[in-house]
């Protein structure tokens, strides 16, 4: 096991030509004959990962001589439409090369992680066995499986990607449900932005013990939004098949994707790009990526013009509408009392992720597809999107602190998926 390519720095800016050279170099170092390759990029909800361009470059390098399949690691998300595939991956890859991950039916159970390990990793918070379930496609005779994705602070695992892309993105119900609930019960604030967490241990153990015979290589990016504009800069690119590859990139992500603040935020305005955020399942990044920095009694206002649903999956959408975002005590009580939640622990975890725990007010401003009454029914406040946009004019705001003409101070986040906002003292105290 080794790191085949590693480059990154807080001021680095990796060009397309340099990405191509890096991927070519890594493939040469591998030095294995390739006839059939599977690429596992994220879906369009991770558009800023640069995985779309990297997948295109890999296909361009390999396809003339190699049979290449591409399976977006949807997890529980809705399959990508042809339009979404073209938007993310370009128009050169034939659509029949894209395969769909079915997280409920198209999976294989490869082993179990015993509850005693989960109990040990979580400090006794959770104690259950976890079935390690992954897509059947991983076992279709590939000479190389390239897992492509972005390292960024994450609410479930600490730092997204690496083994998570396999056991969640290409995973099955038991693995997804129980890993999500483990993270929620353990506490997001104890995990977000951390390299070593109980959920990371679960993912690493599952892959190392049960998928070690598969030819998996990780292609991991560290991305940062350009300060003057909306372009994404690649600060780091890491290719390898070991934990050191992940750790190198994760340490850079901690430097460029954490926004540590000296004082709590009283009013935060977050914009959800309608092309990326169509559900609260995704849009609640606005909540859990800012929750550590929110002041008690403060307000988080979420501009969500593209909001159409709560869950990406029909069953999870139903559960959100039924139980809502009521905080940890109410959610744990509901799990204890209802078998349907015991069988959908990722939904229960999401209820916790999307709550302020009654510390601050969450106000969603939806577009035309969800009414204010429906928003309120799941535990949020609601406000008129057009009125709030007129009041704050987000196109004129800069990321971070802004002073309005009437003297009001707000903190603006143009895309919550790109980082984590926390109090410096709180983050360092939890380190």
- Secondary structure: helix percent: 25-40%
**CATH superfamily (homologous) name of the largest domain:** LarA, N-terminal domain
How much beta, percentage-wise? Answer: 15-25%
Total beta-strand segments: 18
CATH fold name of the largest domain: Rossmann fold
Are there runs of 5+ residues with pLDDT below 50, and where?
A: none
Number of discrete helical segments: 17
Instruction: Tell me the count of domains.
Output: 2
Can you walk me through this structure?
With 431 residues, the chain is α/β, with parallel strands linked by helices. The protein has two domains: 3-256, 3-Layer(aba) Sandwich (Rossmann fold); 259-430, 2-enoyl-CoA Hydratase, Chain A, domain 1. It is built from 17 helices and 18 strands. It has helices at 16-30, 51-62, 82-89, 115-121, 163-169, 173-186, 198-210, 243-256, 280-283, 285-288, 314-323, 328-337, 339-342, 345-353, 372-377, 385-392, 424-430, and strands at 3-8, 36-40, 67-70, 107-113, 130-135, 144-150, 153-154, 158-159, 216-225, 232-240, 258-261, 265-271, 294-304, 361-366, 381-382, 400-403, 409-413, 420-423. The strands form five sheets. A six-stranded mixed beta sheet has the order 1-10-9-6-2-3, sandwiched between helices. A six-stranded mixed beta sheet has the order 15-14-13-12-17-16. Strand 14 (361-366), helix 15 and strand 15 (381-382) form a beta-alpha-beta unit. Helix 1 (16-30) packs across helix 2 (51-62). The longest helix is centred in the first third of the chain and has 15 residues, at 16-30.
């Amino acid at each position: 096991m080794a790191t085949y390519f590693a480059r990154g720095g807080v001021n680095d800016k990796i060009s397309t030509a340099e990405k191509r050279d890096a991927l070519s170099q890594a493939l040469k170092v591998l030095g294995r004959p390739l006839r059939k390759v599977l690429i596992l990029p994220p879906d369009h909800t991770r558009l800023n990962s640069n995985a779309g361009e990297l997948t295109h470059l890999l296909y361009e390098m390999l396809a003339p001589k190699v049979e290449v399949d591409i399976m977006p690691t949807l997890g529980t998300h809705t399959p990508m439409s042809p339009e979404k595939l073209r938007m993310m991956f370009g128009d050169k890859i034939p659509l029949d090369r894209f395969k769909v991950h079915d997280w409920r039916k198209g999976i294989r159970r490869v082993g179990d992680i015993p509850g005693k390990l989960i109990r040990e990793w979580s400090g006794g918070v959770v104690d259950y066995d976890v079935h390690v379930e992954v897509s059947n496609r991983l076992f279709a005779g590939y000479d190389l499986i390239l897992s492509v994705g972005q390292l960024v602070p994450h609410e479930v695992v600490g730092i997204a990607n690496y083994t998570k892309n396999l056991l969640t993105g290409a995973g099955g119900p038991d693995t997804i449900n129980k890993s999500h609930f483990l993270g929620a019960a353990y506490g997001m604030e104890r995990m977000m932005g951390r390299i070593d967490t109980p959920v990371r241990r679960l993912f690493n153990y599952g892959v190392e013990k049960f998928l070690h015979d598969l030819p998996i290589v990780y292609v991991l990016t560290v991305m940062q939004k350009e300060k003057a504009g909306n372009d994404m800069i690649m600060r780091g690119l890491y290719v390898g098949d070991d934990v050191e590859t992940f750790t190198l990139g994760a340490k850079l992500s901690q430097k460029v994707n954490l926004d540590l603040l000296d004082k709590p935020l009283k009013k935060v305005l977050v914009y959800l790009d309608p092309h990326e955020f169509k559900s609260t399942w995704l849009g609640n990044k606005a909540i859990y990526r800012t929750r550590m920095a929110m002041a008690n009694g403060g307000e988080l206002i979420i501009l969500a013009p593209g909001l159409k649903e709560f869950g990406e999956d029909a069953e999870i959408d139903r559960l959100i509408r039924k139980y809502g975002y009521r905080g940890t005590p109410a959610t744990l009580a509901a799990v204890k009392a209802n078998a349907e939640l015991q069988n959908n622990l990722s939904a229960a975890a999401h209820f916790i992720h999307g709550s302020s725990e009654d510390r601050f007010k969450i106000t969603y401003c939806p577009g035309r597809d969800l009414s204010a009454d429906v928003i309120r029914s799941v535990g949020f406040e609601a406000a008129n999107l057009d009125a709030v946009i007129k009041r704050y004019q987000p196109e004129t705001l800069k990321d971070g602190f802004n002073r309005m003409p009437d003297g009001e101070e707000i903190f603006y986040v143009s895309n919550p998926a790109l980082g984590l906002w926390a109090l410096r003292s709180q983050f360092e105290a939890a380190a």
